[in-house]
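This part of the workshop introduces the protein records we will be handling. As an example, a complete record with its sequence and its structure tokens follows.
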Amino acid sequence: MNAQQQPTGSAYFITRETESAERHTLSVLVDNEPGVLARVIGLFSGRGYNIDSLTVSETEHDAHLSRITIVTRGTPQVLYQIHSQLERIVPVHRVVDLTVVAKDLGHEKPLERELAMVKVRGAGDDRVEALRLADAFRAQVIDANKDHFIFEITGRVSKIEQFIAIMQPLGLVEVCRTGVAAMNRGPEAM
């Protein structure tokens, strides 16, 4: 081992400078009970890992199971640690790195969608342009009055970000996003 791979005073190795952070989407099946989400999130915050997106909802009502979808970034070593440590949490039934599974199936990444509500203030030409662009992005008007619109848009994260950037100069007021919901292609379950 060279000096960059030697453990330091902490329990974690220093990563090589040549390793770059990758974006991965993890799907975690857990018991739907109080405190489970806090334990999962505590694993991230306690080790200094960042979460780019987090969604959670009960998905199997009869079995009382919830699915947590986490988008995070890290080197392969950090992502392996996250996966391993999540599997050790008692109410966790299964952890699937959807990004790895998608690549194994020959896809670039898992299917990911997000919902956003975007409030835009505007009058005159800016108002007309906001409506025209919303139509081009297939965003729906869910609330409107004479001085603002609230659009609902669903799609890939990149589409949502592009829509928000385009609305910025037209009077963007506020954005509310759900976070990523993700699933892999194919007939098998998570």
